[in-house]
Backbone:
């Protein structure tokens, strides 16, 4: 189990023999839920994970109540019925279309989900699990993983060596070249970084001219990094902010992930989900970096509706799956600054 914790400094700790410190960060939490045979440990973890920041000194409950109250008040002041309407006012979707989509998904997935649970129960029963008839939250992930192993003779941990970080980045950058005609070149040392694991890259157009730069901070560092993954801008492309002698300031992006760190001299071996996450964030970064717009205030990801901004990221994610078709040279068209797949 790749648990990030050799850094906590137990003298004789090794990746194989422990002792391990297990935290509630995703690279730690998920393997426990998938692989810990000790059901009581899974329950303890599940409850601890779900009740983060809800008791004691760090209890956020009162703050959340206050936020909800203020949001409703804001909605009323602005003439809306609720905060969902305020939020949707600047997005592509409306509360109604979002509800419709959710209902469509719910009704389409209900029966298969019920069937999945039944399959899981009977599989657990066949394996002699005492909890087979009462599978609950801290059992589902564990037994799903066992069922997958039995069906495909492989579990997610065994897939990791196929997704080493250097291989994944090579694949991602190769894809970007095929789709957009760009080269991604390492540019470490060109700009200062905040941690020695952070990489710096340059994007070059087909003539080899730099058109953008980005930072990539891949690994989970629980003591100083929050959960999840995100992309944001460092600089937007801007004519006004150009330095003397150049026509435009090039965009710079930052991509931050929380994936499994390397252990020993092996590179980071990623889960498939972590691979999707990198592709997703790179989709956002591309929209920011490949913009042709020279007016900084509307360049890249700026002023794009929050739901529309997820199009390029989801688009890139889909390339993680083999769909049996070679990427065609012109699968994209530009429309109002957004990348949209052609039909
Ligand atoms: Zn996103």
Residues:
């Amino acid at each position: 189990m790749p648990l990030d914790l050799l850094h906590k400094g137990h003298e004789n700790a090794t990746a194989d023999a422990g002792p391990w410190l297990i935290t509630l960060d995703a690279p730690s939490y998920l393997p426990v839920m998938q692989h810990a045979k000790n059901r009581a440990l899974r329950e303890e973890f599940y409850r601890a994970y779900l009740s983060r920041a809800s008791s004691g000194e760090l209890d956020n409950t009162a703050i959340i109540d206050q936020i909800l109250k203020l949001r409703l008040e804001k909605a009323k002041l602005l003439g809306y019925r609720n905060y969902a309407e305020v939020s949707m006012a600047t997005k592509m979707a409306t509360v109604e279309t979002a509800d419709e989509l959710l209902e469509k998904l719910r009704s389409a997935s209900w029966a298969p989900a019920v069937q999945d649970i039944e399959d899981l129960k009977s599989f657990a029963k066949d394996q002699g699990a005492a909890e087979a008839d009462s599978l609950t939250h801290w059992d589902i992930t564990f037994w799903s993983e066992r069922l997958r192993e039995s069906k495909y003779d492989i579990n997610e941990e065994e897939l990791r060596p196929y997704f080493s970080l250097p291989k994944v980045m090579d694949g991602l950058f190769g894809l970007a070249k095929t789709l957009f005609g760009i080269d991604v070149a390492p540019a470490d040392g060109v700009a200062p970084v905040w941690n020695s694991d952070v990489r710096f890259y340059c994007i070059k157009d087909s003539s080899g001219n730099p058109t953008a730069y980005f930072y990539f901070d891949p690994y989970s560092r629980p003591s100083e990094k929050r959960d999840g993954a995100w992309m944001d801008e460092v600089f937007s492309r801007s004519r006004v902010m150009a330095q003397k002698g150049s026509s435009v300031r090039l965009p710079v992006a930052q991509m931050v992930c929380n994936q499994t760190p390397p252990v020993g001299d092996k590179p980071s071996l990623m889960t498939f989900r972590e691979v999707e996450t990198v592709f997703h964030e790179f989709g956002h970064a591309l929209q920011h970096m490949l913009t042709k717009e020279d007016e900084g205030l509307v360049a890249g990801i700026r002023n794009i509706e929050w739901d529309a901004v997820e199009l390029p990221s989801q688009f890139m994610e889909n390339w993680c799956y083999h769909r049996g078709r070679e990427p065609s040279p012109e699968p994209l068209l530009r429309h109002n600054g957004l990348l949209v797949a052609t039909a």
